[in-house]
UniProtKB/TrEMBL annotation:
Protein name: (2Fe-2S)-binding protein
Keywords in alphabetical order: Oxidoreductase
Family annotation (SUPFAM superfamilies): 2Fe-2S ferredoxin-like (SSF54292)
Annotated Pfam families: Fer2_4 (PF13510)
Length: 83
């Protein structure tokens, strides 16, 4: 089973789990905030809305279409990249 680091915390998930599911299983519902400060989270779950973006191994990705892999480092978007 893959073990990834989410915001510095080790999380183990089942094979075939998306990064979004790993985030949500770890309790993250708000993945970023808009420029006006509103909480944003996954909406479509199929890669169309881009609301689930996060940084995985240094790249901004749509977490709902990104498979969780062993050793990945996931951080939430902040600052200029958050909106």
């Amino acid at each position: 089973m893959p073990e990834l680091m989410i915001e510095g915390r080790a999380v183990t998930v089942a094979e075939g789990t998306s990064v979004l599911a790993a985030l949500q299983n770890a309790g993250y519902r708000t993945l970023r905030h808009s420029r006006s400060g509103e909480p944003r989270g996954a909406l479509c779950g199929m890669g169309s809305c881009h609301e689930c973006r996060a940084v995985v191994d240094g790249r901004i990705v749509r977490t709902c279409v990104t498979p969780a892999r062993n050793g990945q480092r996931v951080t939430l978007l902040t600052g200029d990249h958050a909106d």
